[in-house]
C-alpha cells in the first residue's frame, strides 16, 4: 500500500510566525502523499475579543453559538487556512484548503443536547475517503481546518485532534497511514513541570498506569484517547511531538503503541 | 468540446437569504460541469464596521491594507465561501471552495503603485486551467471567491468579475464556455431609472454608441469590458441578468455579442 503522512498542527505553534514558517518548509519536504490538519490556536478568541464577544468554555470545550460559529468559520477556514495554503504554495507544495463541507469530505452530526448544549458542534459521522483520495491522486495536498458539515447546509465546529484521527482511520482503507501530532511540547510528558520528561513510548498499559497516577495532563487525555482508537482501527504509526519533529533528524517525540 | 457553465454571482443577491437559497438550488440543477465565482457583497464592510475600521474606496475600488486584507480573507474565503459550499452540498452539488491559492488555481501580481497604492490587490497573471480541470474531472464543482495569490505566500484581493472572466478565458482551451453574470438587476439597462429597460442584445457597436451617450451606468463599465475581452478570447456565450436567470424558463437578460 502507498504511504500517507497525516500531520496535525495545533496549539501555540500556529501563533508563532517563525515556528509556523519553518513547519511549512518541513511539511512541504515530506515525500509522498500527505495531508495537513490544523487547529485554530487563539485566532477565534482574538477575533471574538475584538468584536466584544466572550467565548464560553465548558469542560475545556468551546460552546459554539451562531456568532461564535461565524467567528470560527472566518478564522479557521479563512485567515488561518488560506495563509497556510499560500505558505505551502510558496514552498511548491500544491495545497488545497478544505473544511469537511468542501468536496463533502467530512460529514458530522450536531452533538445532541444532554446536560450541556455545545451549540454548533459536530461529531464526525463519516469521512469520505474516496473524495480525499481523488484530491491526493490529482496531485493536491489537502489542508483541513476543524470544521465539518451536516450535509443539510450547516457548518459545524469539530475538535481538530478528532478530525485528524478520523481522517487517518478512514484513509487506512487505501493507504498505510502515519499520523503525527505536532504542538509546542516535545511529546507526552511524565512530569508537566519538566519539558524534557518526554515519554518515548506510550503503550496502552503504561497509559493506564499513568492515568491512575494522574501523571498525564488533563488536556492531553482526549488526544491520547484518539490515538489509541486510531491505532486499533488500523493507523500504522502515531507520534506526538514538537512541530520541529517533521524536520529531518529530530528524534525526540512520544510514540504511541497499542 | 465538453460544455462548461461558469456563473458569477455578486451584489445584493449574496445578501438576500431567500434569493441566495433559490440561486443555490438553481445552480445545483445546471447540467454538466460548472464553476461558481462569488463576490463579497457587503460582508467585508459589515465586519470592518463591527471592528471599527473604515474601508477606503478610490474610484470604486477598495484599498486593501493589511487589516482589510484579513477581513476580506475572513469574509470571502471563510463566511461566504463556506456557507455557499455547504448550501450547494445540501443540494447534492459536490462543491469545493477555493481561493486562487488553493490548488494554485489563480496566480496574480500585486498591482504596481502608480498614482494610487491599492495595497494588497492582485491583477491576474495566470489561471492554471489544468488544476481546475483536474477538479472538474474528479467530479467536484469549484466555488471561487475573489482572492488570488502571488505564489510567494501572499494572498491578494482581486475583482470578482475579473476572476470570473479570466477563469472563463483560460478554460476555453478545453471546454466550450458559457459565462453568466448574475446580480440583482434583470440585465444591462438603457435607462438606469427603469429596471425593465433591459438591453436584450449588446453588441460592440451598440456598446460604443451607449458609451458616448453616457447611457450605461459607471459601475457596469468594467463588467462589460471584461465581457468583450472574454468573447474576443474564445468564450462562447455571455449573459448578464438577474440571479433567477439560471433557473429554467427565465428569458430576460442581456446577451453580450461581439
Give the arrangement of secondary structure elements.
Two copies of one chain form a homodimer.
Chain A: E1 2-9, H1 17-29, E2 33-38, H2 43-50, E3 56-58, E4 61-63, H3 66-90, E5 95-98, E6 106-110, E7 122-127, H4 129-137, E8 141-145, E9 147-149, E10 155-157, H5 160-171, E11 175-183, E12 201-203, H6 204-213, H7 221-232, E13 237-242, E14 253-257
Parallel strand pairs in A: 1-2, 1-11, 2-8, 5-8, 11-13, 12-14
Antiparallel strand pairs in A: 3-4, 6-7, 9-10, 13-14
Helix pairs in contact in A: 2-3, 5-7
What's the short story on this structure?
Two copies of one chain form a homodimer. Helix content of chain A is 34%, strand content 27%. Chain A has 258 residues and is α/β, with parallel strands linked by helices.
Task: Describe the 3D structure.
The structure is a homodimer of 258-residue chains. Chain A has 258 residues and is an alpha/beta fold. Chain A has a single domain, classed as 3-Layer(aba) Sandwich (Carbamate kinase), CATH 3.40.1160. Chain A is 34% helix and 27% strand. Chain A has an 8-stranded mixed beta sheet with strand order 5-8-2-1-11-13-14-12, sandwiched between helices. A two-stranded antiparallel ribbon of chain A has the order 3-4. Chain A has a two-stranded antiparallel sheet with strand order 6-7. In chain A, strand 3 and strand 4 form a beta hairpin. In chain A, helix 2 crosses helix 3 and helix 5 runs parallel beside helix 7. Chain A is globular, with a radius of gyration of 17 Å. The model of chain A has no long low-confidence stretch (mean pLDDT 93).
Amino acid at each position: 500500500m502507498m504511504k500517507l503522512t497525516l500531520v496535525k498542527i495545533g496549539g501555540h505553534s500556529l501563533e508563532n510566525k517563525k515556528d509556523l514558517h519553518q513547519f511549512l518548509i518541513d511539511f512541504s519536504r515530506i515525500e509522498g502523499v500527505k495531508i495537513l490538519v490544523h487547529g485554530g490556536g487563539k485566532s477565534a478568541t482574538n477575533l471574538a475579543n475584538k468584536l466584544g464577544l466572550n467565548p464560553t468554555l465548558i469542560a475545556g470545550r468551546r460552546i459554539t453559538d451562531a456568532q461564535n460559529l461565524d467567528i470560527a468559520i472566518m478564522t479557521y477556514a479563512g485567515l488561518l487556512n488560506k495563509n497556510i495554503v499560500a505558505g505551502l504554495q510558496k514552498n511548491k507544495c500544491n495545497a488545497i484548503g478544505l473544511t469537511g463541507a468542501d468536496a463533502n469530505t467530512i460529514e458530522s452530526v450536531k452533538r445532541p443536547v444532554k446536560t450541556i448544549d455545545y451549540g454548533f458542534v459536530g461529531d464526525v459521522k463519516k469521512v469520505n475517503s474516496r473524495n480525499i483520495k481523488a484530491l491526493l491522486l490529482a496531485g493536491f495536498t489537502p489542508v483541513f481546518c476543524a470544521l465539518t458539515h451536516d450535509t443539510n447546509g450547516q457548518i459545524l465546529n469539530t475538535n481538530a485532534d478528532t478530525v485528524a484521527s478520523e481522517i487517518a482511520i478512514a484513509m487506512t482503507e487505501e493507504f498505510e497511514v502515519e499520523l503525527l501530532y505536532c504542538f509546542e511540547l516535545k511529546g507526552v510528558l511524565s512530569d508537566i513541570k519538566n519539558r524534557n520528561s518526554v515519554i518515548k513510548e506510550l503503550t496502552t498499559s503504561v497509559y493506564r498506569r499513568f492515568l491512575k497516577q494522574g501523571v498525564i495532563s488533563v488536556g492531553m487525555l482526549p488526544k491520547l484517547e484518539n490515538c489509541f482508537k486510531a491505532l486499533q482501527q488500523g493507523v500504522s504509526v502515531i507520534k506526538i511531538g514538537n512541530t520541529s519533529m517533521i524536520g529531518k533528524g529530530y528524534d525526540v517525540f512520544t510514540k504511541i503503541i497499542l
